[in-house]
């Protein structure tokens, strides 16, 4: 199979823009809101409609491609053979429901498990971050600079406040120390946007004890193409078929966080 990456990229960007128009149009409509794993894990009719839209477009244009999606319209995959689109139709659904901002469409396109194309689209402010392997990272057509190391004392780090308190997933005490020693911390409520901000240099690092592949696939491609590093909290490669902890950061920052605050 020979991938036509120019064609795939052109289609992906067109479909993402169309999806954004559909989402913005939904602001004037009444949402159907349901919960999934817990009361804070929301899904709306718009999440499902947008994933169905992508699924239909991909299967029509690229019938030999596969889809891994959050809302159940993808394929049952046990491996990443061939070309796989990993899609979150709306990352940050709680923000979408409550604020109508700070959410994104996230897509990563992988060939035999290797990220080739990555997209994070901030629908409300109309910012499309995209990357193609070997060709850099772009924001609305403007190239972004390669990431450079900074000291922790000058870093702004994204971490949800939940993980700075006692919890069942990790020892919060080292992260409290990291939050105190960093210049600042932020939490935007959308992993995809926070990863895009790392790729753009707006943030220096992002940490989460648990994300699904559709949460990080697009942002991972962006960051790696920008020269950053993305692993789990143990410094190991991410599993694109299951849940992961995630540490994404500028070079140098990643190593310092891993060694000083996360090593056991």
List keywords for this structure.
264 residues; five-stranded mixed sheet; seven-stranded mixed sheet; alpha+beta; 7 helices
Descriptive overview:
The chain is 33% helix and 26% strand. It has 264 residues and is α+β, with helices and mostly antiparallel strands. The strands form 3 sheets. Strands 3-4-5-6-7-8-9 form a 7-stranded mixed sheet, sandwiched between helices. The protein has a 5-stranded mixed sheet with strand order 11-10-12-14-13, with helices on both faces. A two-stranded antiparallel ribbon has the order 1-2. α4 (173-181) links the parallel β10 and β11 (184-186). The N and C termini lie far apart (44 Å).
The gist of it:
The chain is of the alpha+beta class.
Largest sheet strand order: 3-4-5-6-7-8-9
> Segments where pLDDT lies below 50 for 5+ residues?
none
Order of helices and strands: HEEHEEHEEEEEEHEHEHEEH
Figure out the total of helices. Answer: 7
Mean pLDDT across the residues is 92
Structural class: alpha+beta
Portion in beta strands:
25-35%
Layout of SSEs?
Blueprint: H1 5-26, E1 33-35, E2 42-44, H2 45-61, E3 66-69, E4 83-91, H3 93-98, E5 104-111, E6 114-122, E7 127-132, E8 137-139, E9 142-143, E10 156-158, H4 173-181, E11 184-186, H5 191-200, E12 205-211, H6 213-225, E13 229-231, E14 244-249, H7 253-262
Parallel strand pairs: 3-4, 10-11, 10-12
Antiparallel strand pairs: 1-2, 4-5, 5-6, 6-7, 7-8, 8-9, 12-14, 13-14
Helix pairs in contact: 1-2, 4-7, 5-6
């Amino acid at each position: 199979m020979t991938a036509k990456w120019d064609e795939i990229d052109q289609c992906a960007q067109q479909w993402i823009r169309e999806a954004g128009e559909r989402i913005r149009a939904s602001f004037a409509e009444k949402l159907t809101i349901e919960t999934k794993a817990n009361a804070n894990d929301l899904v709306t009719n718009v999440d499902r409609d947008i994933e169905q839209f992508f699924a239909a477009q991909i299967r029509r244009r690229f019938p030999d491609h596969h889809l891994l999606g959050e809302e159940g319209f993808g394929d049952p995959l046990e491996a990443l053979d061939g070309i796989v689109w990993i899609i979150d139709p709306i990352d940050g659904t709680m923000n979408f429901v409550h604020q109508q901002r700070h959410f994104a469409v996230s897509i990563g396109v992988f060939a035999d498990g290797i990220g080739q194309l990555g997209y994070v689209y901030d629908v409300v402010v109309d910012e499309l971050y995209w990357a193609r392997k070997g060709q850099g990272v772009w924001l609305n057509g403007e190239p972004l600079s390669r990431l450079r190391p900074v000291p922790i004392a000058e870093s702004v780090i994204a971490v949800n406040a939940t993980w700075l308190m006692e919890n069942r997933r990790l020892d919060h005490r080292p992260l409290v120390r990291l939050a105190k020693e960093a210049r600042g911390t932020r939490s935007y409520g959308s992993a995809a946007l926070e990863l895009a901000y790392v790729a753009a240099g707006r943030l220096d690092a992002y940490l989460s004890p648990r994300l699904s592949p559709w949460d990080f696939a697009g942002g991972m491609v962006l960051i790696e193409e920008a020269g950053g590093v993305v692993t789990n909290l143990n410094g190991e490669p991410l599993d694109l078929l299951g849940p992961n902890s995630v540490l994404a950061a500028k070079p140098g920052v990643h190593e310092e966080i891993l060694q000083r605050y996360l090593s056991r």
